[in-house]
Specification:
two-stranded antiparallel sheet, 6-stranded mixed beta sheet, single chain, 8 strands, 1 helix, 107 residues, alpha+beta
């Protein structure tokens, strides 16, 4: 991919969920509008019901071929319909994570 790479990561770790940016646990996002980007790495725990609602909105947008919009720590992130999606599993001792990722370039 060319240009700046953006990413949204949806992670689950033993029933916990949170909002984050740039490869941190749970929901991660880097990118958004076309303004100059500042490197971010933020975390906010969210209840399972809120996490599920965000997943539902993402699924609806994907099925409709529309972009997905999410606010992460005060920054609005727009994930284009053309984003590439992947699923990752990590295990370290007794801790496990599943990540649902969306990656895209702006420009």
């Amino acid at each position: 991919m060319n240009g700046p790479t953006n990413q949204l990561e949806l992670r689950g770790q033993q029933g916990r969920s949170a909002e984050v940016s740039n490869h941190s646990p749970k929901i991660a996002a880097k990118g958004g509008d076309m303004k100059k980007k500042v490197k971010r790495d933020v975390v906010r725990e969210i209840p399972p019901a809120e996490f599920a609602a965000k997943l539902r909105r993402l699924a609806d947008a994907l099925e409709q071929g529309k972009r997905f919009e999410i606010r992460v720590a005060g920054e609005r992130i727009h994930i284009p319909a053309r984003a590439q999606f992947s699923i990752e599993h990590e295990r370290d001792g007794s801790s496990e994570e599943v990540e649902f990722q969306a990656r895209w370039n702006n420009g």
